[in-house]
Amino acid sequence: MATLWRLSVLCGAGGGRALFLRTAVVRPAHVSAFLQDRSTPGWCGIQHIHLSPSLHSGSKAASLHWTGERVVSVLLLGLIPAAYLNPCSAVDYSLAAALTLHSHWGIGQVVTDYVRGAALQKAAKAGFLVLSAFTFAGLCYFNYHDVGICKAVAMLWKL
């Protein structure tokens, strides 16, 4: 919004006078036209800012993924006290699933942000998918054949 304000002030689209009159600096029609990539009279700002249509097309999948990440984060906030207060196998397996999913999504974002090249990115995503599967399987194995995550953490705290 600050960029739009500066552009309107520099272009003389009523922005210079708006500072002294305490009115809106950028009219809603200009902002709407800027976001929809069409010109309006009196607007001289750069209007060709495009988002990738395949990634940001208003898809509900991205919104659901974001909501899912937040739900898992809040679930982890509740599971940690539950693991302390009631260490049982249900909490152990819930922690195994939530921790694995949370770390999988986090590492996925790191790969998306920092690994360049389509082939290298696909290989990295396949590698951390296998790592996540082994992590979940290992935690489930530990929960079934050993003391479980909750009791293991309690034993580490006793040291």
What's a concise summary of this model?
With 159 residues, the chain is an all-alpha fold. 73% of the residues lie in helices and 0% in strands.
Structure commentary:
- The protein is globular, with a radius of gyration of 25 Å.
- It has helices at residues 2-11, 15-21, 28-36, 60-85, 89-114, 118-145, 149-158.
- It has 159 residues and is mainly alpha-helical.
- The N and C termini lie far apart (54 Å).
- Helix content is 73%, strand content 0%.
- Residues 1-27 have low confidence and may be disordered.
- The longest helix has 28 residues, at 118-145.
Radius of gyration (Å):
25 Å
Mean pLDDT: 77
Number of helices: 7
Tell me about the biggest sheet? none
Range of helix content: over 70%
- How many beta-strand elements? 0
**How much of the sequence is in beta strands?**
under 5%
Distance between the termini: 54 Å
Give the secondary structure arrangement, pairings included.
Blueprint: H1 2-11, H2 15-21, H3 28-36, H4 60-85, H5 89-114, H6 118-145, H7 149-158
What attributes does this structure have?
159 residues, 7 helices, globular
